């Protein structure tokens, strides 16, 4: 029997990650898929107008946009990102996110 290192998501099955979360008005929804001392993988859904305020992470944060559009600020650089795009936020650089429309992302933090 093999050991599974992921959680909260089926294994050995084709998935559409953007279908794993529903939008909820006024709430940021997340599902942790994997987490250990070197790696964190989390799915997020933010309804239009929700935000993640300025913060820093210890590790590079790779954002893969699954649905919608958001405004992401990394340090002093502003980005408008949309479905199908990927953005890397470097370790220990302040960043924030504002959902310009309903927005889903897969966030991978590598330490």
TrEMBL record:
Gene3D superfamilies documented for this protein: Jelly Rolls
Domain Cupin type-2 stretches: 43-109
InterPro entries the record matches: Cupin_2, RmlC-like_jellyroll, RmlC_Cupin_sf
CDD domains in alphabetical order: cupin_HP0902-like
Pfam hit, one: Cupin_2
Top-level taxon of origin: Bacteria
UniProt name for this protein: Cupin domain-containing protein
Upper classification of the organism: Bacteria, Bacillati, Bacillota, Negativicutes, Veillonellales
């Amino acid at each position: 029997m093999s050991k599974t290192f992921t959680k909260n998501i089926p294994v050995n099955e084709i998935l559409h990650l953007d279908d794993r979360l529903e939008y909820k008005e006024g709430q940021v929804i997340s599902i942790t898929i994997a987490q250990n001392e070197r790696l964190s993988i989390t799915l997020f859904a933010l309804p239009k107008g929700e935000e993640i305020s300025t913060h820093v992470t210890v590790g590079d944060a790779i954002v893969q946009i699954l649905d919608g559009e958001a405004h992401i600020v990394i340090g002093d650089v502003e980005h408008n990102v949309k479905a199908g795009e990927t953005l890397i936020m470097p370790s220990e650089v302040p960043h924030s996110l504002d959902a310009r429309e309903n927005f889903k992302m897969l966030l991978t933090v590598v330490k």
